[in-house]
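Slide 14.
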Amino acid sequence: MALNKRDAGEQVAGKDRGNAGDVLLVTAMTGAANCAAALERQLKLRVQVALSRREAAVALRQSAFAVVVMDEALVSLDASGMDAIWQQAGSAILLQVNFAISGSERLAREVRAALTRGVQQQHMARRAAAFAVESELKSVVTGIMLESELALSEPKVPPNLEAKLRHLVELAANLRERLKASAQP
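Slide 15: predicted structure.
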């Protein structure tokens, strides 16, 4: 079972970063500790058990988890209280499972699949953000080039300014070519 205290060096924004793969099981079922131990063996991740909504809230305040697995039985008993737990979970992947019919192997498969989906979603989000930044940079570089070329086309541009504007056009063109090259796979 995972310990609640870790190195102070792992503190981030008031929360313990923990291991990127930590799992929080929120269930009052008998044998929750055995289930957590089996999950730790199968997934090679640290698993912490919260036996109530209150324990789950404390755990979520103290640590960040990759996955929060909620027992459907607790959710159906206290839906509004569990909604608060979902909100506290932050960026954790949320799973709702019927522990009464799910064995540890099935639970391990579901957690593994959820983690894989989470990694894929993060990768897609990073790609989308990179694309947005790249598009914005291309737009700015094009604007710099056009404005510099327009300034160069003006009559009576002082020679020292003309040299600087030509250099600015060269730099912008170089940056645009680099952006084009980085966009190609």
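Speaker note: Residues 8 and 16 are 8 Å apart (CA to CA).
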